[in-house]
Amino acid sequence: MEKEKETRPEGRQIVMSGIRPTGYLHLGNYFGALRNYVRMQEQYDCYFMVADWHSLTTHPDTKELKNSVLRVLAENIAAGIDPSKACLYVQSRIPEIAELYLILNMLAYKGELEKTSTFKEKVRLQPENVNAGLLTYPVLQAADILIHRARYVPVGKDQQQHLEMARNFAQRFNHRYGDLFQEPEAFNFGEELVKVPSLDGAGKMSKSENQFATLYLADDDDLIRKKVMKAKTDTGPTVKNSAKPPEIENIFQLMSLVSTEDTVKKFDEDYGNCTIRYGDLKKQLAEDMVKFISPIREKAENIYHDTAFLAQVVEQGTEKARKSAKATIELVRQRMEFNYF
Ligand code: TRP
Prior knowledge:
The strands form two sheets. Strands 1-2-3 form a three-stranded parallel beta sheet, with helices on both faces. The relative contact order is 0.15. The protein has helices spanning 27-43, 52-55, 65-78, 95-105, 110-115, 117-125, 132-135, 137-146, 160-177, 221-229, 246-258, 261-272, 278-305, 307-335, and strands at residues 14-19, 45-50, 87-90, 152-153, 185-186. The two termini are 15 Å apart. It is mainly alpha-helical. 54% of the residues lie in helices and 6% in strands. Residues 16-18, 20, 51, 54, 141, 144-145, 153, 155, 159 line the site of tryptophan (TRP). Residues 16-18, 20, 51, 54, 141, 144-145, 153, 155, 159 line the site of tryptophan.
């Protein structure tokens, strides 16, 4: 049989990304990833998946899983993912991913898996549970992407190595069994990803580090205010037009994400004139953060409790995702000549 590369009938390029259902989304997730997803759903055929199988590699207890999955779906929809535009689904509902994972495992080498940074990090963090799923995490991720023959994967720096591995597995498959997969690449509208600094002046907002320095989309108004008012500052500028120290730069960076241009400009001028009052700066930032976060929080809360709506979203997403996955698995089986009869 002719082994030509399959092209997708729909003209649009396919975007695929996975979201781990562990913990609440924070401002870093929003500006670093979600906002791009929202933009992409207008132009691409998007598949956004809740990676519940992946979460078993670090969270084997499944009691809380349902809540976490519903929560992450609700937060993503509240933040702008439109289930009528993007396909929103749950990994464990797509058995074809597991089949492709099995096949790809035979094309992945122990040595390269052991060298993966995220694996080494996890071994350090959970030495008592170095399971095989942890080792083959990047293979499962490659299956997530390749099952839709996706072209673009909107992920940050920490996922580059996994993506590189997905390209390698795709190449090995193509080489051994005949061209099928295009090589997926990271894509973020060609822009430097927005970094969202943490409120303690150390690094980015993140789930695992200082909780009080990270703003979550689920934080209530008072908590947002408290966190912002505690943000690190210094004693203030004494020389006109001096450069801002990193922790002040961070506050301005956060402000530029949620406040109006005029507001940022005003405080910037005050800083330049040495008339700035950090108390006022933080109060303003706190109010603008509340204005930004509270509608998302309230929307997420409503969606989270609307189980019927979420069930319908996932059902619709699963149907579309499975159709795409089945088509790919059919081609995989053909390429590998598994269709004996
Ligand atoms: N590993 C990703 C993370 O930790 C989540 C993920 C799972 C993913 N499957 C994916 C990302 C497929 C992109 C594509 O964030």
